[in-house]
């Protein structure tokens, strides 16, 4: 309340709180009276009270997320993929592959290479969200079949993105992990559908998502019954102009403190520059990520999509070698 | 190219340009040699070249948007809504109504009030994208029927949001204008569907969308054949903490310079604060917006959604009075 | 406190609060116990408590600013400049002139033109903060003498920037208003010196300053005894790429709500583009600014500094004509 | 140029280029004619040309920095501090100490602890830039004498911040390295003075500084003759709300690519949270930083400044242990 708030104004606020079925707790202080609100489900819509006479400001002190919170589940969640991969169980999980599935040959070439270098999961886009309607949009179901064939040969479970509900039906059928991209982090219909899927979900952080928004989008998926959610930091949008996005690595310890869900980091989209992928990958492991998503292409300069941020199989193999030395420092095996 | 780039390196870059079917133009300069690229459709993927030996940096100088550009259509586009409303033809268009459709009575009460005060279109959400799965999500088709009933009585054409493809089918059926919200600005499947709709579309700018991304999302709609697109600035996400978003009014003259499409401003979402809606509405008209989208509720403190940013019918009527005086200064009628 | 916080943990927090000489107020709630803190001067350093066992998070509810606050002084402050100009008294105040003082002739030419068009104050930089050490840095004291001569002839009081303490001594001697630029908003030694000056101060908002930081920098000046402070919004840095900065006009009503200090808007630096200066100037007046700072140059394309954002005397005269029609709408004379 | 640019308009632009003493190179393309500009010292002021008829847009392709660039000096610079410390020579350099010097006893306690744990330099603030004029501002010269005494006993060279020119005289006298803080990154008078100092300088990145602005501020120092400059990333300001700033680690490889100067990372200010300092310190070393600046306090909860982001000597010792294992992975000794 304002310093000069009258008893009547304080009563008015208390009444407004009651009217919402909350409970108000006045705290007389040296400078002013504060009023605590309890009994609210989720966050109070602060401004609703700010417009009342005598009110200086309103500050929410509780959060809307429940199922994703450590207050509901204290121990780390472990997400199982395929027969052998466990995310969040201590072993570092590396997802690698081309940005887009271009052909069976290209996908097999990259899949064999990343498998050989130590990747645990194969990534590759069959449905590509592109800024321009005139850019390559992916091979669709044909691409999913190619990914399945690559899994057949290499044994690597497949992670691929779904950009709409009908696409999600197909991805759920062909792939092992359903990816929800940054642009769809608040596509709530898609999140609900993913929450009804029988496969694990990788949820990428939106370009300007706060931690609460990120966790609430995961909450949408859990609230529909799918608890196998892996978060993924892929860079946020800032004024900073030397990388395509600004990789916000502090989100990893921030998520670990609040939520039991595992979190990956995608340094390929997070930087958008081939020469920054390895340094930021090392940083992501050192900061405590449960896994990495890295774009690898055997001929990046000819890639149909995001070639500039893809690294070569040779660079990837060298990177994995570095990660094998860093992982144990934070108690992870690789 | 770098100052120390060798002739061989320059040849290498020229070759890479040819390999893509582009044309390279070397420009020997005092400090270094620059190489111009032409013949490319849309933007060159800069980093693809940056990784070549001898290259200092690559700067795209052309854009991917075509149909939305004044280079394709020099004169302002005019979007017709219902029988009488023309957006972009010089008359300021005011869209007003509740954030969410809560009931027939509430919607009619607000619709009558805004009609009386001078609004041209009725807005109201039947499908609400909410950060939390536990928040009110809208009345769905029932809400669309209420909006149609309100149009029946008041004669105000209806603008309402579609959050997914099946919802868009319904919105196209019941409403006069289909709104694509900020969170779906890059939901490309939804944009494509909107591009096949027979109704005009209001496309809201994403929270962290650049001007190019904003225009490219409009390009998705136009490229499917729907040329009746109205852009809408509703605030971007920044560090600035005293309003829910930062209303980026400079986008209005920026859009006018590049594109022929009309643009609205939504000061309700753009500020998130009732006491800032009127000042920023005046500013939006003064900066040259073709119209405003304003949230009005007869009892904002009891609104089921975004009440804090809704103004009362009385505040709205006063605002319209102010706008009637400002509009003529920039050659608009109201 | 966390839901699972023990009585002992709550006692521990209460003890930590006492140890700081504050007063703790436990508020048992349905979900958790909250603890209100009072008796603190200025903001509590939240994280100090967050690291205590059982604590979920800490939210500051009071602010450090005092003298700039309406809680200390409810009515608007009026800053007098020269004999006739009053800022914050209802009349719109227009500051115009070249970005940099280049010569007596250039300054007189522009000064006469802006005086004729209706400007109340003359602006012009003698000390220029430039990103590059190789750019024109201003004429220094010679420039101040030219500004004084221009005042002599036109009668327009002079506003000019001081970038360091010795420069401020000179600016205080020659000019009528001391400007502190955005880059120096948190140059606290300079703010302190300005607080001891006998002339009014225009304090520009830093490129990434929050409202609290902006007001606290003004508090530095007031706390030294100089109450004649005018705030100035000049755009903040965001990802938005079509203007040099993002003009954050919502700061005007935000400042008016919290502080009694008048506030200007600088659309020239706020946009960095000539073609956006007039639209954003109109918007700034419509949103409720007490005045404008506009860069005008008789030959912008040959200006030694920021020519691209300077408008011509003819454009300025036309703009003032528009502002004369908008100002009355919000109860300002011009 | 615009697609519809006339030959006359192209000539006009060529003339404007000549008028500036630059050289224009027209490149006729499929869609439009582009004009390359060479012969310019530093960046062309793009907008000056954008306002000419027929011009679509102007894109600078050269940068203003010279002395800091690898184009001027290809090999990494090594900055020598005291007798033994070499920054940029391959060995990881750790700077540790309290945020503020509070007393001789406190400083000695922390200095002994960090020395024992493996720190190479002692940090501590005698002049503190604080947002509020009512916060502890540091002990001034008394603090510098305490730091000198701590160096006397521990042999650790001292790094401390100067916030104004007279303070810099004192810091240069008492300390081994002069720190320029983020708030003063564009305090050009202070940078010039630092450029004339006989001691190395640590220059912290401003809260919203682009890479070019950061390097240009270093250029100010080098251009005055002081080549011993160490850059330092300490977090930038974004919408991201779970850490005080967003640590932008990609700046490390970005700086390494363009400049020969060494770069530190400050995870204490970069996160503002004790529990994030260790993870981001590990990440900073993994990404390739030449050194770290870490705040350590033996009793953080009683620290007079920034206690919440300070770690304890025990946490610091454990962190150094981790860093000893990570450093070799990127070829650094520790």
Report the CATH architecture of the largest domain in chain A.
Answer: Alpha-Beta Barrel
**Mean model confidence by pLDDT of chain A:** 92
- How many E strands of chain A? 12
Assign a percent range to the helix content of chain A.
25-40%
Oligomer: homotetramer
Task: Kindly describe this structure.
The structure is a homotetramer of 334-residue chains. Chain A has 11 helices and 12 strands. Chain A has 2 domains: 7-50, no CATH class; 79-330, TIM Barrel, CATH 3.20.20.70. The model of chain A has no long low-confidence stretch (mean pLDDT 92). With 334 residues, chain A is α/β, with parallel strands linked by helices. Chains in contact: A-B, A-C, A-D, B-C, B-D, C-D. At the A-B interface, helix 2, helix 6 and helix 7 of A face helix 2, helix 6 and helix 7 of B.
């Amino acid at each position: 309340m304002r310093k000069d708030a009258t008893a009547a104004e304080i009563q008015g606020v208390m009444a407004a709180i009651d009217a919402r079925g909350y409970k108000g707790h006045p705290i007389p202080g040296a400078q002013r009276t504060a009023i605590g609100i309890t009994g609210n489900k989720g966050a109070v819509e602060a401004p609703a009270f700010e417009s009342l006479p005598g009110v200086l400001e309103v500050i929410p002190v509780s959060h809307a997320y429940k199922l994703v919170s450590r207050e509901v589940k204290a121990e780390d969640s472990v997400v199982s993929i395929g027969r052998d991969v466990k995310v969040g169980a201590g072993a570092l999980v590396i997802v690698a592959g081309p940005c887009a599935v271009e052909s069976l040959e290209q996908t097999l070439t990259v899949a064999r290479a990343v498998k050989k270098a130590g990747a645990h999961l194969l990534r590759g886009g069959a449905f590509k969200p592109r800024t321009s309607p005139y850019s390559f949009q992916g091979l669709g179901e044909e691409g999913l079949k190619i990914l399945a064939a690559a899994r057949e040969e290499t044994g690597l479970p497949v992670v691929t993105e779904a950009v709409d509900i009908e696409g999600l039906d197909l991805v759920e059928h062909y792939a092992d992990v359903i990816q929800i991209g940054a642009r769809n982090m608040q596509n709530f219909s898609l999140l609900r559908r993913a929450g009804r899927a029988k496969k694990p979900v990788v949820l990428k952080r939106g370009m300007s998502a706060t931690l609460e928004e990120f966790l609430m989008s995961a909450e949408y998926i859990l609230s529909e019954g799918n608890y196998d959610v892996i978060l993924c930091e892929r860079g946020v949008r800032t004024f900073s102009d030397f990388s395509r996005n600004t990789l916000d690595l502090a989100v990893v310890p921030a998520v670990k403190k609040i939520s039991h869900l595992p979190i990956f980091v995608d340094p390929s989209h997070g930087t958008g520059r081939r020469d920054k992928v390895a340094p930021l990958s090392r940083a992501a492991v050192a900061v405590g990520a449960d896994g990495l998503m890295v774009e690898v292409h055997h001929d990046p300069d000819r890639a149909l999509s995001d070639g500039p941020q893809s690294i070569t199989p040779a660079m990837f193999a060298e990177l994995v070698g570095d990660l094998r030395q860093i992982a144990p420092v934070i108690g992870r095996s690789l």
